[in-house]
Design goal:
Layout (H helix, E strand, L loop, with lengths): L1 E7 L10 E5 L5 E5 L9 E6 L1 E6 L15 H11 L5 H17 L2 E8 L5 H6 L3 E8 L7 H17 L3 E6 L7 H9 L5 E5 L3 H9 L3 H8 L14 H6 L8 E5 L5 H10 L4 E4 L1 H7 L6 H7 L2 E4 L12 H11 L5 H7 L2 H7 L15 E4 L6 E2 L2
Parallel strand pairs: 1-4, 5-6, 6-7, 7-8, 9-10, 10-11, 11-12
Antiparallel strand pairs: 1-2, 2-3, 4-13, 13-14
Helix pairs in contact: 1-7, 4-5
Bound molecules: zinc ion.
Length: 373
């Protein structure tokens, strides 16, 4: 079995030019040939299947429930209101979202879970999942109890044979004690929402701003909260190991100097772009050309259906390309394929190379990627 295209994007940021990808019956790549046979169908592009590195499957029932442009403080208040929806409805929406992701050309997902509700969907799914079991908790007195609950949920996922690690939600929603507990656990990879809004910066740097009000209405006790005089990212970097494998999600407010610092001192850290969620909530985009220039490992996620129209990685890629045409297309494809495979340790996925089984996408000029294998 073989597929051929004018451009083979290898998932490492290279365009190998025209050729054929030959596969065995199970989908393993057995040979790459640098010529095409015009008797057969020729695609414009071939690439590995996509990896969605940041999703919240358990928020899939919130599709169109939250208006655009609320800003992060408004968004977290609204999401909180919908968290106690009927479990069967949540499961049904998660199952539909899982199926849709497959149809969009996704082969694997890094998914945030605050509860066990998506476990069954993940067990039945043909997609590969890594679950980031996420906790909130701003009260330092509660840190060890919350960490214990987190550990139990991680264990429950693992006992079902599902890959999972415990992670903190964001610098503004987790006490420094809880961060320590959640990052101390040996299993990796980790992730944390990072620098999604200016309000987050105000809250961590100065101890004030719009997030203060939002958190108070959620019953968070901010009595002992003080500004750290540094950005949320620097605050976080001071609490992690230099070799920590951690994914910073969003990076909307991340500055060039911070990118350079991570590149030089935190070799296993990566950033996840969720451009359409940033446009949906904050109506702004991170400095992707800056990230690209810094040489940092970039990944791509859709975030949840609470802050996006669908879970289509291709639409995220197009959004980045439309706003920043100076970033090479084959590089953006690597964000959604090889870079993610490296981060999650999925050695068989993400790259068009002999011996790998990455799933194959093909598309014609002006079309969208379809799963071929
Ligand atoms: Zn998220």
């Amino acid at each position: 079995m073989f597929w051929q295209a004018k451009n083979i994007l290898d998932g490492r940021g290279n365009n190998l030019g025209s050729g054929q990808v030959r596969l065995d019956r199970e989908g393993h790549i057995i040979e790459l040939v640098d010529r095409i046979d015009s008797k057969y169908n020729v695609y414009e592009f071939l690439s590995p299947a996509f990896i969605n590195s940041h999703c919240h499957l358990e928020l899939s029932h919130l599709k169109r429930a939250i208006p655009e442009g609320t800003g992060i403080p408004g968004f977290i208040q609204k999401v909180q209101r919908f968290r106690n929806t009927d479990r069967d409805m949540v499961k049904m929406a998660a199952s539909a979202a899982d199926y849709a992701m497959k149809a969009y050309g996704t082969i694997a997902v890094g998914d945030i879970s605050n509860s066990p509700v998506t476990m069954e969907v993940k067990l039945k799914s043909s997609l590969r999942y890594h679950t980031f079991v996420e906790s909130f908790g701003f009260d330092p007195k509660m840190a060890s109890e919350i960490a214990k609950k987190n550990e139990q949920l991680v264990k429950a996922f693992r006992e079902k044979g599902l890959s999972a690690t415990g992670v903190p939600h964001a610098p503004y929603s987790v006490s420094s004690d809880l961060i320590k507990y959640l990052l101390k656990e040996n299993f990796e990879p980790k992730c944390i929402h990072m620098q999604e809004s200016l309000a987050e910066d105000d809250f961590i740097r100065e101890g004030k701003g719009e997030l203060t009000g939002a958190l108070k209405t959620l019953g968070v006790d901010l009595q002992n909260h003080q500004g750290k005089q540094v950005s949320p990212l620097l605050y976080m970097l001071s609490q992690i190991r230099n070799d920590q494998k951690i994914l910073f999600v969003h990076g909307t407010m991340t500055q060039t100097a911070e990118m350079d610092l991570i590149k030089s001192d935190f070799p296993n850290a990566a950033f996840c772009a969720c451009p359409r969620a940033n446009l949906y909530i904050e109506e702004t985009l991170p400095d992707y050309p800056g990230f690209h220039k810094s040489g940092l490992k970039m990944l791509i996620g859709t975030d949840s259906l609470a802050s996006n129209y669908d879970l289509d990685i291709w639409a995220e890629i197009e959004t980045i390309q439309n706003h920043y045409p100076e970033i090479p297309f084959e590089e953006i494809i690597a964000w959604a394929t090889g870079n993610a495979a490296d981060f999650f340790g999925w050695d068989d996925l993400g790259k068009i190379e002999v011996g790998k089984k990455p799933g194959l996408l093909g598309w014609k000029e002006g079309g969208r990627p379809r799963r071929l294998v």
